[in-house]
Design brief:
- The protein is of the alpha/beta class and 260 residues long.
- The chain contains 9 helices and 12 strands.
- 38% of the residues are buried.
Length: 260
């Protein structure tokens, strides 16, 4: 893969057996980016026989795709877990396997990182809202928020749009497998948000619109979206208790926040 960028970065994603035949659509959008990464790493869990992958996927190996077989025990956390561990000193962009990415996604993430190297850059964000200092339910947060162009702890990055993590920005606890399994297994976005809060790492929106990439037909029905959409509040409460975080105090310490 030709490399034309002054910020070395690695792209990381994960997939499983039910996405194998739609995955090439996502991969093609990643390899068609205007800004090229050092490498793109695809983690396939043990529901996939990596020795029998279709040519529509293996063709990307010659273009720089690295395929790694891993366990399925961490579910969607696979997309960041191993790359964070192996490439601590790199900028890492995580992406999902069920959408088609705008060709300027990586470029927009990197340019935002250059402006705010201490923040996590995200293509799609939610704005976490309160009612009398009580955090509202997940469904009542403002989706695809576009009124804040500076870093804030009040912004919640969602992985579907693509998220950029500066080197070593998250604590070592992020990769504690047992705690991931116990407290955040079914919601990687929520787990990562709490890791951000533990070190006061803000999120910043790249300004890209639309924020949500086009969904590959038939993929939403097989993903965590259908499981998590009604359970995010439960995950949130569990993580609040585990890390003893007062969400109002934590989120309103962010520069640029607007009180509700």
């Amino acid at each position: 893969m030709e490399y034309k960028n002054d910020v070395p970065f690695i792209v990381s994603l994960a997939s499983y057996n039910r996405r194998i035949f739609t995955l090439p659509l996502c991969l093609e959008s990643l390899f068609a980016q205007t800004l090229k990464p050092r490498k793109i790493i695809l983690y396939l869990d043990d529901t996939v026989d990596a020795t029998t992958l279709p040519d529509s996927i293996t063709q990307y190996i010659s273009r720089g795709l690295e395929i790694v077989q891993v366990s399925s025990e961490l579910l969607s956390h696979n997309k960041y877990y191993y790359t964070f561990s192996r490439y601590k000193d790199y900028v890492i962009i995580t992406v999902d396997d069920d959408v088609i990415y705008n060709c300027n996604t990586f470029s927009n993430l990197i340019e935002t990182y250059k402006r705010y190297p201490y923040a996590i850059s995200a293509t799609r964000v939610l704005y976490m809202t309160f009612n009398s200092k009580i955090l509202n339910k997940y469904e009542d947060w403002i989706s695809e928020y576009d009124k804040l162009n500076t870093p804030s702890l009040r912004l919640f990055a969602t992985g579907v749009g693509g998220i950029l993590y500066p080197p070593n920005i998250l604590p070592d606890l992020t990769l504690d497998k047992q705690q991931i399994i116990e407290y955040g297994l079914h919601s990687d976005d929520m787990w990562l948000k709490f890791m951000e809060l533990l070190v006061n790492a803000p999120v910043v929106w790249t300004g890209q619109k639309p924020q949500h990439p086009p969904q590959i037909p038939g993929t939403r029905e097989t993903g965590l979206y259908m499981t998590n959409r009604f359970k995010n509040d439960s995950y949130l409460e569990t993580l609040e208790k585990r890390f003893n975080i007062n969400m109002y105090e934590a989120l309103n310490s962010s520069e640029g926040c607007v009180d509700d």
